[in-house]
């Protein structure tokens, strides 16, 4: 059938400062790319603490909130938007459980991280948060709509 980019969902994925400092950018991007998802926005940013607090506003009552926001703003983050069928839910599957002690081998956190406070990557947990997070991190014109030739073979 005919594939239109508009029918695919989008999710926000961020490589946190630990993933960047450990040289895991290409490794992480590669897993989403090989799966068949499409990169539609990417940039490197050092978020301010205020920005990190906005990103994690849902967790502001948690005891680890302050440390988490300090950490996210401690260095460069690779902010991305990935597009594809089921990418929000399946992206979380590629990432693995929040606590790397519990994530399965084969997942990004299972293979590449050890503790929950340094779990190298973030992914939106549902359609509403995906939309909110994309809007927080990106201007609309930073998102690129295009058809890749591979799509006709992936779908
Ligand atoms: P994420 O959004 O980053 O994929 O994580 P999540 O939904 O699986 O987990 P969430 O509960 O939303 O936590 C967000 C991030 O907070 C850090 N965290 N630290 N006990 C702790 O020290 C603790 N618990 C959570 C993690 O970096 C987690 O990814």
Automatic annotation (TrEMBL):
ATP binds at residues 16, 64, 92, 98, 109, 119. It catalyses: a 2'-deoxyribonucleoside 5'-diphosphate + ATP = a 2'-deoxyribonucleoside 5'-triphosphate + ADP; a ribonucleoside 5'-diphosphate + ATP = a ribonucleoside 5'-triphosphate + ADP. Its EC number is 2.7.4.6. It is found in: Mitochondrion intermembrane space; Plastid, Chloroplast thylakoid lumen. GO terms for biological process: CTP biosynthetic process; GTP biosynthetic process; UTP biosynthetic process. Its cofactor is Mg(2+). One of its GO terms (molecular function) is nucleoside diphosphate kinase activity. The keyword tRNA-binding does not apply. It is an enzyme of class 2 (transferase). One of its GO terms (cellular component) is chloroplast thylakoid lumen. Keywords: ATP-binding, Kinase, Magnesium, Metal-binding, Nucleotide metabolism, Nucleotide-binding, Transferase. Residues 8-145 form the Nucleoside diphosphate kinase-like domain. The active site is at residue 122. Major role in the synthesis of nucleoside triphosphates other than ATP. The ATP gamma phosphate is transferred to the NDP beta phosphate via a ping-pong mechanism, using a phosphorylated active-site intermediate. Shows the highest specificity towards GDP. Belongs to the NDK family. Homohexamer. This is Nucleoside diphosphate kinase. The chain holds residues 80 to 234 of 237 of the full protein.
């Amino acid at each position: 059938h005919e594939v239109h980019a508009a029918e695919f969902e989008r999710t926000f994925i961020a490589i946190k400062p630990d993933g960047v400092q450990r040289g895991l950018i290409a490794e992480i991007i590669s897993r989403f790319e090989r799966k068949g998802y499409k990169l539609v926005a990417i940039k490197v940013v050092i978020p301010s603490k205020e920005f990190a607090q906005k990103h994690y506003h849902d967790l502001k009552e948690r005891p680890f909130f302050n440390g988490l926001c300090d950490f996210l703003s401690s260095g460069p983050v690779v902010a991305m938007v990935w597009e594809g069928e089921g990418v929000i839910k399946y992206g979380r599957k590629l990432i693995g459980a929040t606590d790397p002690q519990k994530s399965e081998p084969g997942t990004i956190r299972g293979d590449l991280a050890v503790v929950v406070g340094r779990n190298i990557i973030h992914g939106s947990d549902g359609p509403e948060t995906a939309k909110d997070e994309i809007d927080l991190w990106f201007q609309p014109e930073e998102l690129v709509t295009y058809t890749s030739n591979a799509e006709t073979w992936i779908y």
